[in-house]
TrEMBL record:
CDD domains: zeta_crystallin. Residues 10-317 form the Enoyl reductase (ER) domain. Homotetramer. It comes from Heyndrickxia vini. Gene3D superfamilies: Medium-chain alcohol dehydrogenases, catalytic domain (3.90.180.10), NAD(P)-binding Rossmann-like Domain (3.40.50.720). Keywords: Acetylation, Cytoplasm, NADP, RNA-binding. This is NADPH:quinone reductase.
Length: 322
């Protein structure tokens, strides 16, 4: 089968289009014939080498997210069968052969059914972004129905899904984006209020926030604390530098500042999030938005693009015809 494989760490040109053997599923594993694979910034850090969370053995086929059809099941698999439409979220799977390929194998717990209402390209847009959104909202912030959540960067891969999950669970949602196009996407996701985060003083329009989902903490953290309610929670998903701020801002409101990384999720919480996502897809609570689509052969270009542009929605690689 065809796949993208790297035999050394380095720049994007280490990603090669090669022919490799099809992986075989072992007990409680599933093989999926992929139609699309998701592209995540973490995959660029892994490719470069020295990534703190994951340093694979070489040669290595990248990719944690994908969608397609179950091709073969291992012994002991009863929840899925050959021919099922599925999405794959394998970042914490014990075995993951990589989604930048025509076929991949991983633990059955990381493979979930994809309803007919969700396309394969949308299914590939789940994985890392949706589990990050779910963990931030519910495992770290413990968002409750009726609370108000401010989601920065709500037009991006994680933010767009976080808006929908929060609305589906009864929260009031304020979402931000940096362009009119991005703001329209956030409205379509269901946000109650949409703000332009490039507009001077935009957070002056915000009052009474219980939870903040923060994508750029070095820029926004101090202002987040000012709009937060007493006992509010800020979950940091993204950061690109350091900052100097007065910690006294946390004291008056007894605010919690929480870090978040999907890699740290206990496996039971991770599996719980995938079950909840499958239910939300089935019941209409999630409609992933796909941005850029590139062919699998252009995986190197995709990895350049994912870290150098302000993406709207999720970038995916096309592997097979729908």
């Amino acid at each position: 089968m065809k796949a993208i494989q790297m035999s050394s760490f380095g720049e994007p040109d280490v990603l090669k289009w090669v022919e490799i053997e099809e992986p075989e599923p072992a007990e409680k594993e599933v093989r999926v014939k992929l139609h699309y694979a998701g592209v995540n910034p973490a995959e660029t850090y892994i490719r470069a080498g020295g990534y703190a969370f994951f340093n694979p053995d070489l040669p290595y086929v990248p990719g944690f997210d994908g969608a397609g059809v179950v091709d073969k099941v291992g012994k002991g698999v009863t929840r899925l069968k050959t021919g099922d439409r599925v999405f794959v979220a394998s970042i914490l799977a014990k075995r993951k052969t990589g989604s930048y390929a025509e076929k991949m194998v991983c633990d059955v717990e990381a493979v979930h059914k994809l309803p007919e209402s969700i396309s394969f390209e949308q299914g590939a847009a789940l994985g890392v972004p949706v589990t990050a959104a779910y963990r931030a909202l519910f495992h770290r912030a413990h968002l409750k129905p009726g609370e108000t959540v401010l989601i920065h960067g709500a037009s991006g891969g994680v933010g767009f899904l976080a808006v929908q999950l929060a609305k589906y669970n009864g929260a009031q949602v304020i979402g931000t984006a940096g362009t009119e196009e991005g703001m329209e996407l956030v409205r379509k996701a269901g946000a109650d209020v949409v703000l332009n985060h490039h507009e001077h003083g935009y957070l002056e329009k915000v009052q009474g926030v219980d939870v903040v989902i923060e994508m750029l903490a070095n820029v926004n953290l101090e202002e987040d604390l000012k709009v937060l309610n007493k006992f509010g929670r800020i979950v940091i998903i993204g950061n690109r530098g350091s900052l100097d701020f007065n910690p006294r801002l946390t004291m008056a409101k007894e605010a919690d500042i929480l870090g978040m990384a999907v890699w740290n999720a206990p496996i039971d919480e991770y599996n719980e999030s995938l079950i909840a996502v499958e239910a939300a897809l089935k019941n209409g609570g999630l409609q992933p938005f796909v941005g850029t689509i590139l062919p699998l052969k252009e995986a190197a270009e995709a990895q350049i693009h994912i870290v150098s542009s302000r993406a709207k929605g999720k970038m995916v690689l096309k592997i097979a015809e729908d």
